[in-house]
Amino acid sequence: MTDLAAVVFDGVVYSSWLFMMAAGLTLIYGVMRILNIAHGSLYALGAYVGASLVGAWLAAGYPPVGSYALLLAAALLVGLVTGPLLERGLLRLMYGRDEVVLLLVTYAVFLILEDVIKLAWGVESLVVAEPYALPGNFHIGTLAYPVYNLILIGAAVVIGLAVAWGLYRTRQGKLLLAVIHDREIAAAMGINVGRVYLFTFTIGAALAAAGGALTAPAIAVSPGIGVEVIVLSFAVVVIGGLGSLGGAALGALAVGIVRSAMVRYWPEGELFSVYLVMALVLIARPKGLFAAPEARKI
Amino acid sequence: MKRALFQLVAAGLTALLAAAAGAQQPVRIGIVTFLSGPAAGPFGVPARNAAEIMAESINAGRVPAPYATKGLGGAPIELVIIDEAGGPQKQVAELRNLAQRVDLVIGYISSGDCLAVAPVAEELKKFTVLFDCGTPRIFEDASYKYVFRTGPHATMDNVSTALYVLERRPNVRSIAGINQNYAWGQDSWTDFEAAMKALKPGIEIKTSQMTKLFAGQFGAEISTLLSSGADVIHSSFWGGDLEGLVLQGAPRGLFDKHVIVLSAGEPAINRLGTKIPDGTIIGARGPFGPFAPDTEFNRWFRGVFQERFGVPPNYASYKMTNALLGVKAAYEKAQKAGAASPNQERIIAAFENLTFEGVGGTVKMSLGKGHQAVMDVAVGTAKTVGGEFRIVDIKRYPADQVNPPEGVKSEAWIRSGMKTK
User: What is the pTM of this model?
Assistant: First the structure.
């Protein structure tokens, strides 16, 4: 019983982490039709800025409780600076071009940001484990788990609900949905599509950075951490259906729990667990779990 | 007539000058090490730093005896440093370019890169010294004339840690592993598992976790290891994965409930320090870093490195240094054999089966038909004393005890009970 509970809990923790990245990625794709490879770098930037801020905070002798607020501040800072900079400064010049061109542009941004990170922080890893260990442990059966894992799950749920509420319950969200549905008609109806794009990309960037910042205390923040993230979150988004928030949540949950079960019962299979889920889903639903049906335009 | 004589003298003088200049022609050494990506922090950059400071010290004649002569027998060293990142295919292409620009190549941390570049170096007939990569397969599955490896291979890391564990915990009944799912992690676990089975027949294997390289998060793996009930857990993790395992495992009691063996744990000491729980068994892939004997040579090396870079040298720094010292020793041996400016063939002949003094101990090129080094190895235990991280209970194993004899493959040697000559 403990085994099963551990599999589910470990799976849910991993899913929360995946979802935070996948949510931003799928939002940007849904609205802007951009597969943003630079999402991985924004995650890494969030982790680096978060770790640096918390490191400085703790070094100055301030109470460690404050470090949680700093992690969130890091996510906002990275989102608000890089989001508008990339969208206004670069992507705006590329709209209307083929999706592949935009994919290549974001890949270039990814490579540039990887080097920017190296320039700013060097190649040594950053370790700020205090926020991870501070809240202590709780137990499932005989297994100890850091309470920080619950914070991660909570953060993912809050982010998911907030984005869903923003999309479906606010005026700004409805404008955004209109742009997703048909950009040209939305523009013709007077929606400022440029502003919607800026808004979406900034939110997406902040979500990626939040994922990085909240993960930073549990890992060694080191060069290349964004690479793994982008591959996994793409897989999750594809499983869920490109552009679907609910799909991303369900995709993350499926991948997390299957992976966790593989680790426990068949460790050799862990390496391809994500792709197993992806293959099975795509065989049954080639556009992912919740991809919106596309109207055929003549 | 006068004019002809003048031309003859002028030509002669020019030739003499050229020869004199030739004697002092710099030796260009290509250094290939990770300057970017996850392996740069723990290995690549510490190795690059060692190459730079050693090249400067060798050129200035500041290295202690027996390396006190300037340069390589008087010829100054020039380094051409390139990045190892990008994978084996890229490294093969890089080597083809680099080979045209340098006299010899010292490099390669990744076993995958070593396996890929060794046959290419041979094809290009370019003197190449592998300094760090671990896989024993380089010289066990092939034979090379132009390729050498001055770093010991990985078999001894896992044989020595198995011996160390069983000497201290003879009642160990079960083991588990968490290793990265690629050549290094798989080979390390295979060797450790086989060594434990050979030394303690009937030992139970609880689980072998093979994680994706740079996965970074190991929640489910740690839960599985905690539930496994294994007495000993082996890991050859390095870099961010190693640090992640310690950061995520320690608060959950992984290090309290099991004996943890980190066979390549030494480079993490500089960053994690006291975060590494007491009782963790740590290896350094040789007598390097805190495991190096306290000799004058070692004190000099640690001193100049620490002074320049603000951190002590780790095992990658030691291994790069030994590669340069090995080349210097071979070059000067070839000089003594009669060539003032020895060519590649003569240096290679001098390098085969060479024994030279490395920083950390004696290096014997005794395996792989004289192309593969062996060294003693040391293993120790982490302990925080008065808020300061220390390695205690250090045990040194002679090279012959932890390496297969010449001509025997590592895997077969371990399975047959690791008999020494």
Answer: 0.90
Which strands, in side-by-side order, build the sheet including B128-130?
B77-83, B27-33, B104-107, B128-130, B147-149, B372-374, B361-367, B355-358
% pLDDT > 70, chain B: 94
Q: What DSSP string describes B100-165?
A: HH-SEEEE---HHHHHHHHHHHHHHT--EEE-S---THHHHS---SSEEE-S--THHHHHHHHHHH
Structural domain contains residue A87: yes
pLDDT in tens, B347-391: 999 999 999 999 999 999 999 999 999 999 999 999 999 999 999
Task: Let me know: does B315 contact B267? Beta carbons within 8 Å.
Answer: yes
* Mutual angle of helices B219-228 and A2-32, in 10-degree steps: 170
Tokens of residue A232, six digits: 């996994």
How far is A185 from chain B, CA to nearest CA, in Å?
A: 44
Task: Report the interhelical angle of A148-169 vs A171-181 (nearest 10°).
Answer: 80
Question: What's the one-letter identity of residue A291?
Answer: A
pLDDT digits (tens, 9 = 90+) for A241-272: 988 899 999 999 999 999 999 999 999 888 88
Q: Which 8-state DSSP code applies to residue A267?
A: G
CB A198 within 8 A of CB A88: yes
Smallest Cα–Cα separation from B129: which of B344, B404, B409, B362?
B344
Domain presence at residue A182: yes
What ipTM is given for this predicted complex?
0.93
Q: Do A132 and B40 lie within an 8 Å CB cutoff?
A: no
Q: Are B390 and B374 in contact (CB under 8 A)?
A: no
Q: Does the CB of B223 have a partner CB in chain A at under 8 Å?
A: yes
CB contact under 8 Å between B212 and A129, yes or no, is: no
Helices (H), A244-286: 245-265, 273-284
Number of separate domains in chain A: 1
Over range B384-412, report the average pLDDT. Answer: 94
Query: Does residue A293 lie within any of the structural domains?
Result: no
**Residues B288-300, mean pLDDT to the nearest whole number:** 94
Q: Which residue of A has its CA nearest to B42?
A: A124
Cα–Cα dist A226/A201, whole Å: 18
- Residue where the block lists tokens 């046959």: B119
User: Could you give the C-alpha distances from A205 to A108, A194, B96, B180, B239, in angstroms and in order?
Assistant: 16, 16, 41, 31, 27
Residue whose pair of structure tokens reads 């030394």 in the numeric block: B199
The residue count of chain A comes to 298
| Partner-chain contact A144 B252, CB within 8 Å | yes
Structure token pair of residue A129? 């484990």
Closest by CA to B159, choosing from B191, B197, B112, is: B191
Alpha carbons A270 and A255: distance in angstroms, whole number: 11
DSSP letter assigned to residue A92: G
For residue B215, what is the nearest residue in chain A, using CA coordinates? A228
Domains of chain B (ranges; CATH) run: 23-153+293-374 (3.40.50.2300), 155-284+376-415 (3.40.50.2300)
Domain that residue A200 falls in: 2-284
**A297 falls within a domain:** no
Contact present, A11 and A256 (Cβ < 8 Å): yes
CATH number at residue A12: 1.10.3470
